[in-house]
Design brief:
Largest sheet: 7 strands, mixed
Oligomer: single chain
Structural class: mainly beta
Strand content: over 45%
Order of helices and strands: EEEEEEEEEEE
Shape: globular
Number of helices: 0
Number of strands: 11
Length: about 120
Amino acid sequence: QVQLVESGGGLVQPGGSLRLSCSGSGIIFNDYTMGWYRQSRGKQRELVALIAPTNSGESTNYADSLKGRFTISRDNARNRNMVYLQMNSLKPEDTAVYYCNAHYYSTAGRRDYWGQGTQVTVSS
């Protein structure tokens, strides 16, 4: 059974930082591109950041509006199966539920797995 479990969300003041973590199990972690998405109230889920598998060079991709403030990383060593999102200089508009995602492409198309999400609230 595939499980992605996020942690690290919470309430933070504008300008503050948070580090989200996602622990994965039930998949060969390094076969998957890992990502963070977010969904604000009344809006569609949007991409935050992606990181390729380690054997693909761990290349990263960010939403344009978040470049320079958010950093995605992954740790596949010793079966730790973790992916992180470091968020700095947080703004009220970063308030959202943040979801961990694992996906890969095959001849059958894209296969996605999602975590349950963790709430991030940026407010004074």
